[in-house]
Amino acid sequence: MKDIKEKSEYCLNCPVKPCSKKGCPLENDIPTFIKAIKEENYKKAYEILSETTVLEAVCGRICPHTKQCEGSCVRGIKSNPVSIGEMEAFIGDIAIRENYKIAEKNEENKDKKIAIVGGGPAGITASAFLLKKGYSVTLYEKYNYLGGLLMHGIPEFRLPKEIVKQTVQKVIDLGLEVKYNMELGKDITLQELEKQYDAIFLAFGANITTKMGVEGEELEGVYGGNQLLEHNEHPDYKGKKVGIIGGGNVAMDCARTIKRLGAQEVKVIYRRAEEQMPAEVKEIQEAKEEGIEFLFQNNIVKILGKDKVKKVELIKTELVQKEGEARKVPVNIPDSNYIIDIDYIVMALGSKPEEFVNTLGLELNKWGYINIDEQNRTSNPKIFAGGDLAGAKGTVAWAARSGRNAANAIIEYLK
Predict the structure, then answer these.
(1) Spatial separation of the C-alpha atoms in residues 410 and 404, rounded to whole Å
(2) What is the pTM of this model?
């Protein structure tokens, strides 16, 4: 605690709060909660954070802090930024250990019933903010646990499962009713939910890996990174060479998990430069330290093999500034092709919703995500959507922000 106190003293308590206003998707009041740590009033620090988030112990560990809050810290201009993530996790852990409550149970609006589909960051956050206002909330989850990608998408070495369970339990303790093993489209329909509830929030994510459209993607040995992490059904990597295509945190999680499962070589293949990788800097560095090789500015051309993956053809790229583009784009360099031996390919290029979303009778955008307005409303005024399912930015904090926004919009709708 002495170490945390020293780190809190490093904060300048800026009146403009760029770490909160510019850097934090949830707009946590960072200087104020750190000030409470300085005063060693940890319960007050938790109460301040609870005004905007319920995932302190989670986000404090896995958010891309260098690209978000810490990346906007005034201290970081000339020196090291304040250790915001570490302090948030510290408060989240104390709240779990000391059993601080998010809020007291409230039944002010218990006659209004809301269904939430999906128990990931968006669904959990929406549940909490609705329960705090006293609404009756029932959450439908297709698995026998809550947490979504926090449980099955982020490896244990990055985010301990026990932390997720205890964080989720705080929301359950607010009075959340959970119906496990209930999958939309199989165990219950949207029409049935419409009859039973005053409002519905769809937050079940989008976990189907996006494909590249290159030759050989259909070969045995080509996997989707999202599905590998979700279902944990890995092949035997011992003595094998594995290529990971992509540059985000899913790519890092896949690479580091597969290396731990005994792969001889793991190469991350990314078509842009290292500084353009969306993955957290810390994750990239730790992957390198674990022996994972990075092939920057390389694009995949073709996956080779008769039945199974045997090799992959790559081409080098150069970064070119094009009109109308905010950042340089990778362009293939002619005649720079080369072939490497690979036993397995893992696509970690982003994700899209499952096909059954097309059958829900809701308007979709051109990318296949559920179309929502500024209030998270779908084309059906009674149904709201958020998180990955609605194309929210792909971090846990942004998914949680989407859930909070949806909760506020539902509250306004029910008024």
Answers:
(1) 10
(2) 0.93
